[in-house]
Structures are given as structure tokens and as C-alpha cells.
Write a structure and sequence with these properties.
heterodimer; A: 107 residues; alpha+beta; 5-stranded mixed beta sheet; B: 386 residues; 14 helices
Chain lengths: 107, 386
């Protein structure tokens, strides 16, 4: 099962093994990792699962859709070049070990 | 021998004991009564929702699908077309885009509560939630104000199922036909005189230069009206049931209305009105020792996943302090409810105003009459005391 490293805004790290196909957002909310909300239940419609993909992993993450790109203009914390919505990234073998940084706020 | 019959009035009234058996003993269960598989564990439902290529919505998402509907609504279209259709509406229904709904929602709630002033007892469904949700949808979609009670009655009727024949009965199909015609007239009228409302935006949209198909527009509009009226009112009724079933919760909310969103989230988890939706298996899939074949239908029992102890400890307890995340009250994945922000805002305003007007609100009947439906669960009537 792929491992995901969640790093909170204040630098605390949580490592989780997620079933293949589970999204980074679901991994966080189902395991009580703070910092990701997922208000729209994963339909790319609210920008409360905003995250920053660690630069070392950015190239390996599948490209974003137009809809995600537009939704990212609506984040509570600053949008950066490595901003993504974590409901749109699934845990896969290719992303085993990925590092995800949480923003300061989601709402 | 264990059975799971989603047509039975007992399941309408209380599905939770059967869900517990399903989760514990038959996590991938073939229901002979429904002639469908049933998934009940949170993790399995989430995986099915994420994997639309294996669990498709294109053959319908209602357990008893309405004729001609599959493939022509947002909820019954798979990606990538689904994502482009949804993007057309999505921006109008985000939390931020809906700030304009707050003041009208407050004034509509106040108007209907004013009419109840001085009453000792009333039916929350007929005398508040129905009227409030219809008024909100009229505002959002700019519906012509004529005959709104009929619109409401038909919306409620079309989601029901006949418990005896185990299918949609003539009255349910007639309600659906009525709503199609109502939506059809509305679409024609909007094409001639488009406005700023949500429906006009959708009706006039194009995808990659192609106009949307007439049937797609018609049935999506039909579904949005149904969801906006029936589903919203049904959930709001469950929320008030929970608040009045737990006087300590009601007192806490009266004391501190900032806790109302927590009551909404816990209600979405505890006993959401959207209990079950359907998918169709596209590739042979083996789960918990059972093999599901292409063409088989699968019920995703959101209401069961929401009581899964692996995700929500003490799941059968309504806990205001739980702040549940990752619940299935709005479904999940690409087809998660489009109206989440509308529902949260409408429910928050309704409870705020209701508890201001009736801080001692209590429920009258222990036994409730439940809507016959294989998808949704809410009482037909909820008598409350001021």
C-alpha cells in the first residue's frame, strides 16, 4: 500500500499507508489528520482540501484538470506553483512516499 | 437466513440493525429482494465511489431508476463528459458564490415562522421545511411562482417506490412525467428569455462548442428541482428530528448557535436522508470472496458506511462534539452532491431562526410514518411542540 507523508503547517509529520486508489484527501479525513477538510466530499468543488505537493514529487503527480485549476483560485491560503486539491490525487505505487504539506487554513 | 429488503417498510423505518449485520457478516451481499449487491462498509463504499470506471453511474444512480433518465443527468453520466457538464454549474454553487443566498434564506425562514407564531404544535414538514425549501429553490432557479404546492408534491412523489410491486408505481411515474413537462416548459421559456439564474446558465451552456442535448438539459433540470426540494427538505427534517430527539443538543444550540454547523455534519453522518445510491459493475470484481459480474447493479449504502465503527467510534451515538469528516452524507467522489453548500447554508439558517422562534421545540410522536423509498429516508410528517 502506498505511503503518504502529511506535514502540518507547524511542521508535524504523519505517515499513513493508504489503500491504492484512495485519495490524499480521504486518507487525511478518514484517519483524523488535521489540516484538510474536504467539504464537498471529493467532487473538486470547494477548495477546502488544498495542499502543497512537495517539490520533489510535483512532476510525478498527474496533471490537474481545468476545473481543479479554476477551483484553486478560490483557496483560503495562498495559491503557490505546487498547490493542488488533495481530492484529485489518488495514492498509487508511483506516488509511494509522497510528501504533502498542509496550508495554514482551509476556510 | 438474513435478508436485506430495501422495499420493506421496516427498512424505511429503521435500516440500522440490518446495516450492522451487513457490515459485520455480509460486507458484499447479494440481496435477492433488490436483485443487487449491497456494499455497507465505509472503506468499500469509498473505493467504489472513487473507481467510476469499475462502478459506473451511466446505467442510473437511483436504486429504482426512472424511465429514460440514465445517461441524461449529471449524476448518471461518467467522466470525462460528466466533469465538463458539472463544471458548468459548479461555480455557481460554491460556498463563496452562494453568499447572496443568506439574506433571502433568513427572510423566507422568518416569514414562515411568523405564520406559526402562537401555535402550540405544528408539522415541521408541511408547515415549515416544505415551504422554506420551495421558496429557496424558486429564488435560486427563478421559477415562476405559480402552483408551487404541486411542484413540491410531485418532487416528493417521484422519489418514492411502491413497497408491494417493488418498482415505481403509476403515481410515481405520473409525478415524474409531470415534472419533466414542467421542466420542459421552463427550459423553453428560459431559452427565449434567459436570466442570471442558475438554470439559465446551464441551459445556454456549450461543451467544447457543442450545445447540450435537449434531453440532458431537461432531465438535469428535473433532477435539480427534485433534489433542491425533496432532498433538502428531507434532510432538514432529519436534522430537526435529531435535535428534538436529543434535548441536550437543542439546549446547547440555543445557548451557542455557532455549534449549529456541527449538528448539521453529525446529522449528515448519523442518519442522512440519502441512504442508498446505485452503481453498475463494468469489470468483474471480487470483494470479500464474492464475485460481481459486469452488468450487475450494486447498492452503495451510505447510511451503513456512516455507522462504520472503523471510521466513527461509537457510531450509533449522536455526538454533537464529533465533527465528523469523511462521512458519506453527500455521497463522495466525482458524483458527490452538487448542492452541499446550498444544503449547509439553508439548514444553518433554518435552525438558527427556528430555535430563536421556538427555543423549547420538542418532538410529539415516538412512532413516525416514513416515506417509502429505496434511496431516501425521511418522515412524511414531523409533529413538533413549541
Amino acid at each position: 500500500m502506498p505511503t503518504v507523508n502529511y506535514v502540518s503547517f507547524d511542521g508535524q509529520s504523519t505517515q499513513l499507508e493508504l489503500a491504492e486508489g484512495m485519495t490524499i484527501m480521504q486518507g487525511a479525513v478518514m484517519n483524523g489528520v488535521e489540516g484538510i477538510e474536504g467539504e464537498c466530499s471529493g467532487s473538486c468543488a470547494c477548495a477546502t482540501c488544498h495542499c502543497y505537493v512537495d517539490d520533489a514529487w510535483l512532476a510525478k503527480v498527474p496533471a490537474m484538470s481545468e476545473n481543479e485549476d479554476e477551483m484553486l483560485d478560490d483557496t483560503a491560503s495562498e495559491r503557490k506553483p505546487n498547490s493542488r486539491l488533495s481530492c484529485q490525487i489518488k495514492a498509487t505505487a508511483a506516488l509511494d512516499g509522497i510528501v504533502i504539506h498542509m496550508p495554514e487554513e482551509q476556510e | 437466513m438474513f435478508r436485506f429488503n430495501p422495499y420493506s417498510p421496516e427498512i424505511d423505518a429503521d435500516p440500522f440493525p440490518a446495516y450492522a449485520t451487513l457490515r459485520a457478516e455480509y460486507p458484499c451481499f447479494w440481496s435477492e429482494d433488490a436483485e443487487m449487491w449491497v456494499l455497507s462498509r465505509h472503506k468499500d463504499i469509498v473505493m467504489a465511489l472513487n473507481d467510476w470506471e469499475t462502478f459506473s453511474s451511466a446505467k442510473g444512480n437511483l436504486v429504482n431508476e426512472l424511465p429514460g433518465r440514465a445517461g441524461s443527468t449529471l449524476g448518471t453520466t461518467d467522466p470525462p463528459r460528466h466533469d465538463r457538464l458539472r463544471a458548468l454549474i459548479q461555480k455557481a454553487v460554491t460556498k463563496r458564490a452562494l453568499a447572496h443566498l443568506m439574506a433571502p434564506a433568513q427572510s423566507v425562514a422568518q416569514k414562515h415562522l411568523e405564520a406559526l407564531k402562537g401555535r402550540e404544535q405544528f408539522d415541521f414538514v408541511a408547515e415549515f421545511s416544505s415551504k422554506y425549501t420551495v421558496d429557496l429553490i424558486v429564488y435560486l432557479f427563478d421559477l415562476p411562482p405559480a402552483d408551487l404546492e404541486t411542484v413540491r408534491d410531485k418532487a416528493v412523489m417521484m422519489v418514492q417506490t411502491d413497497p408491494v410491486t417493488r418498482q415505481k408505481g403509476p403515481e410515481h411515474l405520473a409525478a415524474y412525467e409531470w415534472m419533466r413537462e414542467y421542466a420542459g416548459n421552463l427550459v423553453q421559456e428560459r431559452k427565449k428569455n434567459p436570466g442570471e439564474d442558475l438554470l439559465s446558465q446551464f441551459i445556454l451552456s456549450e461543451i467544447d462548442g457543442d450545445k447540450l442535448k435537449d434531453e440532458e438539459i431537461l432531465l438535469t433540470v428535473t433532477t435539480l428541482i427534485m433534489a433542491g426540494i425533496e432532498s433538502l427538505s428531507g434532510f432538514m427534517t432529519m436534522l430537526i428530528k435529531n435535535i428534538t430527539d436529543h434535548p441536550e443538543v437543542r439546549e446547547a444550540l440555543v445557548e451557542n448557535p455557532d455549534l449549529i454547523p456541527d449538528a448539521i455534519e453529525e446529522s449528515l453522518r448519523f442518519n442522512t436522508s440519502a441512504q442508498r445510491f446505485r452503481r453498475c459493475v463494468m469489470k468483474e470484481t471480487t470483494l470479500h470472496g464474492q464475485t460481481m459480474k459486469p452488468g450487475d447493479f450494486v447498492i452503495l449504502a451510505y447510511g451503513a458506511g456512516n455507522r462504520d465503527e472503523d471510521v466513527f467510534p461509537n457510531a450509533d451515538v449522536y455526538d454533537l462534539s464529533r465533527k465528523p469528516k469523511g462521512h458519506l452524507g453527500f455521497g463522495g467522489g466525482v458524483h458527490a452532491c452538487l448542492g452541499t453548500a446550498i444544503a449547509r447554508l439553508a439548514c444553518k439558517v433554518a435552525v438558527e431562526e427556528l430555535l430563536l422562534a421556538f427555543p423549547n421545540l420538542s418532538k410529539v410522536d415516538q412512532e413516525l410514518r416514513w416515506m417509502p423509498s429505496t434511496n431516501f429516508r425521511s418522515p412524511l410528517e414531523l409533529q413538533v411542540k413549541a
